């Protein structure tokens, strides 16, 4: 029995190590080296840097869940198979609903306050990501406009214009990969906050999800101000902050999707 438990403990440690090491990349791996040909490189760096916040927390939750699950399975079943089953269940817990479950252990009142404070930080980071993403997209569009203007004014010929456009399209593809990866982690975290909000105020998640992207864009500044000066019960403030996070994440998602459209429709001489 002791031998089986020792093996199961080793499995849990291995799973945690794999979860953490298997997803770690350097910034240069993600964004590529600066060879001097990318006028928007600084904005790509800024965007990528905002992604560290979302990735780190999500990975910790999954890894810890897997480790705890493996250990629990080992204690319950006393064998390696039970440990692996427990690890799978623990990993699922760590990535869906695990956030609220961990907060709820503190007691409902403390959990609500904890979620509210976390959402303040979340919204600050989401705003940083949106700003960085907007700056990158605007820079790419400015580069596209510059190539078209040079070509139209006959300062450059078609071969050079095509070459420069091809480079911009390749850069946009890389931008999309970076933004999409960040966006995926944002959605995972957003779902955790929706689960928390629904536990605090039942039915709130569905109401938040039905908000339209148009309304979110129209009320951007108004909503941001309301959440920073919100009054009323803490539960209501959690819902308001979750709504703000959801709306911002929707804008980030829409902007991320637009990168592909820019590459396909705007970064071409046919659109001159």
Automatic annotation (TrEMBL):
Keywords: Signal. Residues 1-19 form the signal peptide. Residues 216-236 are annotated as: Disordered. Residues 58-99 form the YMGG-like Gly-zipper domain. The keyword Signal applies. The keyword Glycoprotein does not apply. This is Glycine-zipper containing OmpA-like membrane domain-containing protein. It comes from Azospirillum oryzae.
